[in-house]
């Protein structure tokens, strides 16, 4: 480029100008220094763009903490804490767009709105706060519930959506880029409200449940049930149950068919690429990638990466999942054996210390490291915050961690959930999960005394089938009906459920497996 520019200048030096004005006009072409400034300006605008963040307000808002601001909505309420209540109009548009692809949840809202099955329910929720979860929250309100909400991830909140919820009257406490202290403060504000006490909990990750157990155990005297949607949160619930400390019924939404097979698999299959492209602009063809964990999330990630030409290998602890990976054409390896050759390392196990400092030290220059699991425990990010390493923020949610010899490792979202921290997720597949969550809340809230004990339960199969049936009209799909003779032969009710609880809905030839991710 420089040679071409110099040649152009040399040629132009022989141009004869008609007058001094023409010569001055030509001289306005950028000099070498000017070109460099122009390039820097373009580069900077690219890093500030929507491509690396799922919020209108990331780069434009001031740096004042929302906790220090005094804000009220149009109704005069100040029972919320968001980045900027003035962004509510933008957020409302986002929610309306999401509603168009969440028709099943809207259908549930319309069908049950007259009955108000959640009348009297006081739901405290801790989930990602996006346009899609806003549709869920507003559905719960339409079904009669009072809601107070906070975020389960410090990077995934869409500020304008949080503002729209606050404007509509939902007490929401969340903003993108919270500190750890802010995170727990927001949870506390949701739970600790004078004159208001929750009787239902909707959690994603178990942090809200943990906080209530730790700070406000008396709340459980009135709580009818907990609905949990993540691997991490469900694991915590089973630990409480095993220790005899779970004092209310809990519904395990994560292991419901409609969550595992659609949100975990299909959602991650699309959003892994979206998150990586928005943050790094990487080309996948020919890249060496290792995916840690071959549960539903890992399967989705591997499928997408392989389709774009990446050379994918898998790590696994479970021999059944490992065999599935082999049958799907992926080499199963140990991370420490291949880490030096990898261009990308992606974790999706739900475990801790999957990628340790020792492994990070051995990675090659330019290796991209990210996490698709719920928690930020899979990558040992804390071990990278040492004096000998330099952190360089290159764009939103993208850090270059620089070793003394100049090697750089590209860390995304500081090891937190990539797709919701750095991009967005498909509204349709979240409609499936959200509808499942809404039905789980309705079931626990309205269940007669004694139906559920102080234990962890899976969603009844009939409800899974109902959630799926609500989404079939989007594809103009028509179910075949069993005849009386066929139903008798199979030992089924014509209206379902059509599969026993132990049935695993696997793709193609895959064998049943136990998920550990």
TrEMBL record:
UniProt keyword annotations, A-Z: Hydrolase, NAD, One-carbon metabolism
UniProt pathway annotation: Amino-acid biosynthesis; L-homocysteine biosynthesis; L-homocysteine from S-adenosyl-L-homocysteine: step 1/1
Q: How is the cofactor bound?
A: Binds 1 NAD(+) per subunit.
Q: Which Gene Ontology terms of cellular component type are present?
A: cytosol
Give start-end positions of Low complexity composition bias.
39-58
Record has Hydrolase as a keyword: yes
A GO MF annotation of the entry reads:
adenosylhomocysteinase activity
Q: What is its EC number?
A: 3.13.2.1
Q: For substrate, which residues are the binding ones? A: 130, 204, 229, 259, 263
- List of residues binding NAD(+): 295-300, 316, 419
What positions does the domain S-adenosyl-L-homocysteine hydrolase NAD binding occupy?
264-425
Q: Which PROSITE patterns match?
A: ADOHCYASE_1 (PS00738), ADOHCYASE_2 (PS00739)
**Pfam families assigned to the protein according to its UniProt record, in alphabetical order:** AdoHcyase, AdoHcyase_NAD
Kindly indicate where the leader peptide sits in this chain. Answer: none
* Region described as Disordered: 26-77
Extract the CDD domains matched here.
Answer: SAHH
Which cofactor does the UniProt annotation name? NAD(+)
Catalyzed chemical reaction(s): S-adenosyl-L-homocysteine + H2O = L-homocysteine + adenosine
InterPro entries assigned: Adenosylhomocyst_ase-like_sf, Adenosylhomocysteinase-like, Ado_hCys_hydrolase_NAD-bd, NAD(P)-bd_dom_sf, S-Ado-L-homoCys_hydrolase_CS
Q: What are the GO BP annotations of this UniProt entry?
A: one-carbon metabolic process; S-adenosylmethionine cycle
Spell out the NCBIfam families in the cross-references.
ahcY (TIGR00936), PRK05476.2-3 (NF004005)
Family affiliation = Belongs to the adenosylhomocysteinase family.
Protein name, UniProt field: Adenosylhomocysteinase
Please report the organism this UniProt entry assigns to the protein: Sinocyclocheilus grahami (Dianchi golden-line fish)
Q: Which gene encodes it?
A: ahcyl1
């Amino acid at each position: 480029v420089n040679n071409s520019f110099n040649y152009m200048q040399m040629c132009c030096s022989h141009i004869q100008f008609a007058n001094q004005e023409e010569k001055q006009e030509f001289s306005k072409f950028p000099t070498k220094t000017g070109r460099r400034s122009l390039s820097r300006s373009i580069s900077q605008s690219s890093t500030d763009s929507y491509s690396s963040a799922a919020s209108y307000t990331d780069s434009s808002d001031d740096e004042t903490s929302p906790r220090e601001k005094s804000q009220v909505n149009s109704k005069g309420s100040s029972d919320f804490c968001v980045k900027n209540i003035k962004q509510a109009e933008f957020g409302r548009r986002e929610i309306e767009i999401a509603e168009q692809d969440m028709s099943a949840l809207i259908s549930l809202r319309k069908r049950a709105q007259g009955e108000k099955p959640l009348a009297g329910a006081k739901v405290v929720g801790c989930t990602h706060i996006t346009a899609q979860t806003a549709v869920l929250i507003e559905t719960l309100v339409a079904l009669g519930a009072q809601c107070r909400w906070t975020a389960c991830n410090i990077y995934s909140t869409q500020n304008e959506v949080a503002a729209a919820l606050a404007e509509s009257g939902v007490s929401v406490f969340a903003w993108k880029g919270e500190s750890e202290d802010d995170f727990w403060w927001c949870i506390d504000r949701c739970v600790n409200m004078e004159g208001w006490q929750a009787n239902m909990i909707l959690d994603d990750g178990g942090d809200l449940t943990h906080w209530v157990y730790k700070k406000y155990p008396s709340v459980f005297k009135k709580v009818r049930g907990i609905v949990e949607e993540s691997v991490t949160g469900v694991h915590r619930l089973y630990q409480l149950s095993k220790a005899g400390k779970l004092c209310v019924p809990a519904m395990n939404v994560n292991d419901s068919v409609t969550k595992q097979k659609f949100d975990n698999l299909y959602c991650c299959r699309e959003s892994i690429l979206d998150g990586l492209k928005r943050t790094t602009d990487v080309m996948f063809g020919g890249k060496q990638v290792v995916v840690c964990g071959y549960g539903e999330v890992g399967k989705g990630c591997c499928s997408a990466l392989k389709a774009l030409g990446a050379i994918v290998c898998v790590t696994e602890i479970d021999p059944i999942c490992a065999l599935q990976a082999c049958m799907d054409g992926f080499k199963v390896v140990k991370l420490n054996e291949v880490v030096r050759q990898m261009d990308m390392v992606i974790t999706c196990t739900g475990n801790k210390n999957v990628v340790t400092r020792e492994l990070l030290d051995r990675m090659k220059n330019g290796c991209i490291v990210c996490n698709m699991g719920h928690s930020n425990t899979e990558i040992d990010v804390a071990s990278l915050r040492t004096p000998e390493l330099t952190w360089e923020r290159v764009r939103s949610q993208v850090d270059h961690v620089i070793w003394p010899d100049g090697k750089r490792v590209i860390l995304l979202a500081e090891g937190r959930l990539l797709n919701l921290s750095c991009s967005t997720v498909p509204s349709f597949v979240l409609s499936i999960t959200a509808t499942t969550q809404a039905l789980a809340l309705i079931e626990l809230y309205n269940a007669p005394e004694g139906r559920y004990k102080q234990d962890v339960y899976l969603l009844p199969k009939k409800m899974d089938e109902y959630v799926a049936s609500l989404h079939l009209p989007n594809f103009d799909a028509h179910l075949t009906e069993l005849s009386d003779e066929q139903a008798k032969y199979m030992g089924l009710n014509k209206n379902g459920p059509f599969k026993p609880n132990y049935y695993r809905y696997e793709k193609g030839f895959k064998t049943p497996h136990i998920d550990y991710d």
